[in-house]
Hints:
The protein has helices at residues 32-45, 62-79, 130-143, 157-175, and strands spanning 2-8, 12-20, 26-28, 47-55, 89-96, 99-106, 112-116, 123-124, 127-128, 146-153.
Amino acid sequence: MTITKERKTKETSIELTISKGLEASHIDTGVGFLNHMLDLFAFHGHYVIDLKVDGDTDVDDHHTTEDVGILLGQAIAELMEDKSSIQRYGTAYVPMDETLTRTVIDVSGRPYLHFEADFSSQTVGTFDVQLVKEFFYALTINARLTAHLDLIRGGNTHHEIESLFKSYAQALRQAASDSSVSRLPSSKGVIEA
């Protein structure tokens, strides 16, 4: 199943296509760090995402980040419309060097987000880390999930945020009972000793 959605406001114009699969995603939000996080989300969630955003990034990255979360959440809800075969619950712990994150998801139809993360710095490059919670709130509420995200340990802000995106994707994949696949679980194509 492939879901295609659009969202147009005075602040953003978004075109999104999403399906389950292992092919490469093509993501262009106009926000480099967000592109990187969404690419990891797609990889670890077993999603193929084609996303093009024209947003008011001359103001800041807020509207783009939030609106992508809204549309992505709506699309994921449509992908999971048939809940007859899902596991419903998913849990993932993701370590990334010094960082450890836990995400627990219930495909409950009752939207709720608990987000506990004290980031080590306020920005990653030019990306305002406050937008991470905004993204996950928009995604979770619009996908109609209950999600608990906890940054258990941190150190490097890039690692902290990356582990949140990876753990959320892994927990969601488990909760939606994505079919098993044989593939090395690394976006780099190698697991280092």
